[in-house]
Amino acid sequence: MSETPITFSQLGLDPHLLNTLSDLGIVNPTPIQQQAIPHVLQGKDVLAGAQTGTGKTAAFGLPLIQRFIEQPWVREENSKEIRALVLVPTRELAQQVLDSMQAYAKGTELKIVAVYGGTSMKVQLNHLRGGVDILIATPGRLLDHAHVKSLFLGKVEVLVLDEADRMLDMGFMPDLQRVLRRLSPLRQTLFFSATFDSKIKAVAYRIMRDPVEVQVTPSNSTAETVQQMVYPVDKKRKRELLSYLIGSKNWQQVLVFTKTRQGSDALAEELKLDGIKAVSINGDKSQGARQKALDDFKAGKVRALIATDVAARGLDIAQLEQVVNYDMPFKAEDYVHRIGRTGRAGLAGLAVSLLSHDEEPQLEAIERLLNTRLPQEWLKGFEPSPVVREENSPRRSSGRSAEKRKMKAKLKIHAQRGKKAR
């Protein structure tokens, strides 16, 4: 006999929000919403482990909106005060959170604003005038506004750090510390992170007061609905294999990760030569170009979106079925973030990694992080070449030779683990 689903009403949300959620077609709360919302409503600090696509925006957004509906304030014309501050790592995520929060707050008088780089400071100044109930911001642009005194952070009641691990990975810790110095120590702090390692916890506990920990998935885990596969292949044949997979598997929408901006642009052009509509998105492109690339991908005008880790952060792509690691990530935690783009909301997803010989250490780090061995398959016609040291090449060091012998041994192991496709 199945259990009766928990409802938003049972979580303590008021009738206005319940009606709004019903209009949006949101029926039952997700696990992170079930666990976090009651604690947020009670004013507690919350440390939440939740991956992208789990409904974390509503987990902090709904109780914030309810709090400000129940405790309205009168904004004065010259006010610069902010009641709640939501910090995010990228402008794409800022816009995504803004859209969601405004949808949840429909029919209320709450003022919700987003500020981020790549857009006019003057326009943002106008939006900030008179104070804001909920401000969504990237750290850099927030400090820009604080510097010109277009906002006042001393009375922030609630601080939300969304995708906090990504902010730290992107080097925002100094900016975050500058922001924290401007905030009241009596604030409520909500800390949301996809990964939940000791480093993340150490940072969280330094800025929070006796937080409640909630976690909907094990630390550094991947969604159960995501099938993972590793294809060993020579580096020079990766593009050929990717084109083969897209064509033979009839993938209509695939997000492909590369490690460099130049690599993303080059791969997109090479795929076009193979007859595959592709577009790249990276930090070298303007905000307008990045948005157009994303819109074209969502609309099905292109089959492959080639992205770097930084450019992909905050991208909102619903029902994405395939993710490909064209280059293995530098950090094992990035693997979790990458493949977390697929298999959302209980839907099936596929995460494929194209593994060259020199990327073996990255694979080992990922498997240690996940505490599991990823399945591998050698595709017929794309089997990797043996690693053989040139007889006439000088020996650089005994350590280097040992490394090559180790790599050769690993290749033999892969031969045993791999299953050649027929």
From TrEMBL:
Record domain Helicase ATP-binding: where: 37-214
Positions of the UniProt region annotated as Disordered: 381-422
GO cellular component, one term: cytosol
The name this protein goes by in its record: DEAD-box ATP-dependent RNA helicase RhpA
Helicase C-terminal domain residues: 225-393
Reaction it catalyzes: ATP + H2O = ADP + phosphate + H(+)
Span of the annotated motif Q motif: 6-34
Keyword Cytoplasm in record: yes
Entries under PANTHER family matching the protein: ATP-DEPENDENT RNA HELICASE DEAD BOX FAMILY, ATP-DEPENDENT RNA HELICASE RHLE-RELATED
Any single Pfam family the record assigns to this protein: DEAD
SUPFAM superfamilies, A to Z: P-loop containing nucleoside triphosphate hydrolases (SSF52540)
Molecular function (Gene Ontology), one example: nucleic acid binding
Alphabetically ordered keywords of this record: ATP-binding, Cytoplasm, Helicase, Hydrolase, Nucleotide-binding
Similarity annotation: Belongs to the DEAD box helicase family.
Regions of compositional bias (Basic residues) in chain numbering: 403-422
Domain DEAD-box RNA helicase Q: 6-34
InterPro entries: DEAD/DEAH_box_helicase_dom, DEAD/DEAH_RhlB, DEAD_box_RNA_helicase, Helicase_ATP-bd, Helicase_C-like, P-loop_NTPase, RNA-helicase_DEAD-box_CS, RNA_helicase_DEAD_Q_motif
GO biological process entries: response to temperature stimulus; ribosome assembly
UniProt EC number: 3.6.4.13
Source species, domain of life: Bacteria
